[in-house]
């Protein structure tokens, strides 16, 4: 394949081919991409071939059992996602051009973000800019980071296992996790328990409850308590983990300050360890390369100011 001149590629490239390629890369297949795009499979295959001809490189290695992006394909996918992320912001940026702040803010968060600082930032933002709007989407922490990196989210708030060098991080607060059970569990209401009493018990947890992931301290505690190795249920949503605990599927971890009300209402019972619970930090994620409208800038600035002005000890939620 002959390589095109860079200046010709920009003007000659059919941008619909890039859109099709992004979908192919994300669903990892021609057939699934055709279903996603509501097109016939030959049309998608032809689009991929035309794009490869245009860039002068092979983008996908595939056969009956394998589908894999080439090194050039991975590079093109990453750059395409950034391009589309920037373009997707244009309507929001144009909406923000007026004497009043009327833009839209897209916030991506993990499901267990419970913080007075975040709540105060939202309240002050709405009071100061009543014509601006907000969308808060809840996702796994890895997906939150992905949305921020791809500039689909204005900013994100989530757990962090590995830092992305393309993003900026600021700790919002520190929370502590404890084990809990529901009213139907045999340990409910019992006092004076130790970790030994949890040995072999079935459990539920978060998808990030692994030694190599964001809830590593919780995973280590699970191992120390010798809970049953077969986890009964998992979810990326705190609400669903709580549901499984209350329903009696097994013991599960929850942030102490989030579970406080359920404990007071008799829906949950705190289990050991009672001392030195595992600590997890929750971060604000920002992409410095993202072009923000005035609403996005205002809310982000307000939250960053609250974080900077609040001493660390006041951002540690013991429970």
Automatic annotation (TrEMBL):
Q: What are the transmembrane regions?
A: none
User: Which InterPro entries did the record assign?
Assistant: HTH-type_LysR_regulators, LysR_HTH_N, LysR_subst-bd, WH-like_DNA-bd_sf, WH_DNA-bd_sf
What domain of life is recorded for the organism? Bacteria
Q: Do you know which Gene3D superfamilies this protein is assigned to?
A: Periplasmic binding protein-like II, Winged helix-like DNA-binding domain superfamily/Winged helix DNA-binding domain
This protein's UniProt keywords = DNA-binding, Transcription, Transcription regulation
Protein's recorded name:
LysR family transcriptional regulator
Question: Member of which family?
Answer: Belongs to the LysR transcriptional regulatory family.
State a GO cellular component annotated for this protein: cytosol
Domain HTH lysR-type: start-end pairs: 13-70
Mind telling me which SUPFAM superfamilies this protein's record contains?
Periplasmic binding protein-like II, Winged helix' DNA-binding domain
Please tell me the species this chain comes from. Answer: Mesorhizobium ciceri
The Gene Ontology terms for molecular function here are: DNA binding; DNA-binding transcription factor activity
Looking up Pfam families in the UniProt record yields: HTH_1, LysR_substrate
């Amino acid at each position: 394949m002959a390589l095109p001149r860079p200046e010709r590629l920009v003007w000659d490239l059919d941008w619909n081919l890039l859109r099709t390629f992004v979908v192919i890369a994300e669903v990892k297949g021609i057939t699934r991409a055709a279903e996603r795009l509501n097109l016939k499979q030959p049309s998608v295959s032809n689009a991929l071939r035309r794009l490869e001809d245009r860039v002068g490189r092979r983008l996908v290695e595939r056969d009956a059992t394998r589908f894999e992006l080439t090194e050039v394909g991975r590079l093109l996918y990453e750059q395409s996602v950034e391009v589309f992320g920037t373009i997707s912001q244009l309507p929001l940026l144009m909406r923000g051009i007026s004497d009043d702040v009327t833009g839209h803010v897209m916030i991506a968060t993990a499901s267990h973000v419970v913080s007075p600082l975040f709540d105060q930032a939202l309240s002050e933002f709405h009071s100061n800019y009543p014509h601006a709007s907000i969308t808060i989407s809840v996702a796994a922490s890895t997906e939150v980071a992905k949305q921020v990196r791809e500039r689909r989210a204005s900013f994100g708030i989530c757990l962090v296992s590995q830092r992305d060098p393309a993003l900026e991080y600021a700790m919002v607060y520190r929370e502590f996790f404890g084990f809990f059970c529901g009213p139907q569990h045999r340990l409910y209401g019992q006092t004076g328990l130790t970790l030994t009493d949890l040995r072999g018990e079935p459990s539920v947890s978060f998808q990030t409850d692994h030694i190599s992931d964001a809830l590593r301290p919780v995973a280590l505690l699970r191992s120390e308590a010798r809970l049953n190795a077969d986890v009964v249920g998992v979810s990326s949503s705190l609400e669903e983990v709580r549901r499984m605990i209350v329903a009696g599927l097994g013991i599960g971890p929850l942030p102490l300050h989030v579970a406080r009300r359920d404990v007071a209402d008799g829906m949950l019972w705190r289990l050991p360890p009672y001392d030195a619970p595992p600590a997890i930090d929750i971060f604000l994620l920002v992409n410095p390369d993202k072009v923000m409208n005035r609403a996005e800038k205002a809310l982000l600035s307000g939250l960053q100011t609250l974080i900077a002005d609040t001493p660390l000890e006041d951002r540690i939620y013991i429970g």
